[in-house]
Amino acid sequence: MIPTLEIERERTRLDAERENEREHWDGSAADGRVFRPGELDLSHKVILYLDDITVSFDGFRALNKLSLTIDAGELRCIIGPNGAGKTTMMDVITGKTRPDSGTAFFGQTIDLTRLTEPEIAHAGIGRKFQKPTIFEQHTAFENLELAMKADKRVRRTLFASLIDDERDRVAAVLRQIRLDQAADRPAGLLSHGQKQWLEIGMLLMQEPRLLLLDEPVAGMTDDETERTAELFTSLAGKHSLVVVEHDMAFVEALGGKVTVLCEGSVLAEGDLATVQADPRVIEVYLGR
């Protein structure tokens, strides 16, 4: 039998080794890759982890132990009744609201609860609100140009001329959002749907890994809605998308997994047909 004193010494030694490893961890993943501090680690193929997130406002629980994971490259739709916590969830992810408890990680190592809103945007999370925010007096091309120059990773001033590679990049995004034929048109003259696409393009100029999109097709025509679905499905894979939406036809067109929120937590999850057939979802949301 090993003496108790030796056991305690061994425990102390192991504890010291573990602490040393934590202090000197070089960011190596299990497969041998090395991640710099702040670099997105997707070695487990999951881009967003929310675990037991709780947020209260004046005694009202907007989020109640919410747990959710989003895979890298996934296109996820979030639905639910008003007051279900959808906006608060996005506020937590982007750093606008601090949770009372719980954890929120971007990849394996980036703790979102410790970062400011600008730091989270810089890390690779872009958010689009329902109402488009664009520079209406500038052309579509200039809006994308300004978005690129506002990216702190691009060490150029707002008054510097674009180099050829940057022009090519702006042109590529214009084609992607189907505004290449409106590149020189003032943004204020674009249709509502085109303004929405332009703001999405402005986010894409900053190369986000995760896009949060709040009711992106509200107010769009049927044709614009269809084109938006095509755009989002084309972005999935290279980007991860979380789409908050009430338009069930649009959700169906996107395909993929649907998460239903109710009273601040996940009520149901699965493909659209599965959640639409769930009696709980019918009672609190679809049946209204």
Automatic annotation (TrEMBL):
GO terms for cellular component: plasma membrane. It comes from the Bacteria. The gene is urtD. The keyword Membrane does not apply. Keywords: ATP-binding, Nucleotide-binding, Transport. One of its GO terms (molecular function) is ATP binding. NCBIfam families: urea_trans_UrtD. It comes from Thauera aminoaromatica. This is Urea ABC transporter ATP-binding protein UrtD. PROSITE patterns: ABC_TRANSPORTER_2. Residues 48-288 form the ABC transporter domain. InterPro entries: ABC_AA/LPS_Transport, ABC_transporter-like_ATP-bd, ABC_transptr_urea_ATP-bd_UrtD, BCA_ABC_TP_C, P-loop_NTPase.
